Amino acid sequence: MDQKILPASSSMKEFERFLISPYKIGVFLDMHIAQLKNIDKMAKEHDKQMIYHVDLIHGIKNDEYATEYICQEYKPFGLISTKSSVILKAKQKGVIAVQRIFLIDTHALEKNYKILEKTKPDYIEVLPGAMPWMIEEVRTRVKTPIFAGGLIRTREEVRNALLAGASAITTSKTDLWEM
């Protein structure tokens, strides 16, 4: 993926800003299932590719059945989830699968490594992404491209995450979209 910033929207206002941006790929974080049809239609009208965060679509369970429905009905570019079943189903449906992991402590990290071995996602989204040394460790250990997200607030933190090996940064901070 060549795009280094993945604009993340959690409101229609942010999404509309993404639609007029030069970026081709965006992430939608937080929506109601009733919004999905309109968001998908608007994205396609603007020639944008969307990655939907399945865990944050309200009104639908974040499981393999919901994943199958979203893939068949909307054909997204990708899906993000913390759930292994969602990642495996997305891969089966030929959709980019992004496994979101949280860097809480060593125990959680080791548990995530075991999950990643089983799911083999296309990308891993590491949160918080403002820890370059952890991005480097995860990328080296699992040899899967990394998206860094969460708590990245400055241009310097974006640069540090990219220098540490992140393929892209997911951010809802619109001032960082201008990089």
TrEMBL record:
Keywords of this entry: Glycerol metabolism, RNA-binding, Transcription, Transcription regulation
Signal peptide: none
Domain of life: Bacteria
InterPro entries: Aldolase_TIM, GlpP
Alphabetical list of Pfam families matching this protein: G3P_antiterm (PF04309)
Record's keyword annotation contains RNA-binding: yes
PANTHER family referenced in this protein's UniProt entry, alphabetically: GLYCEROL UPTAKE OPERON ANTITERMINATOR REGULATORY PROTEIN
Protein function: Regulates expression of the glpD operon. In the presence of glycerol 3-phosphate (G3P) causes antitermination of transcription of glpD at the inverted repeat of the leader region to enhance its transcription. Binds and stabilizes glpD leader mRNA.
Protein name stated in the entry: Glycerol uptake operon antiterminator regulatory protein
Organism for this UniProt entry: Cytobacillus citreus
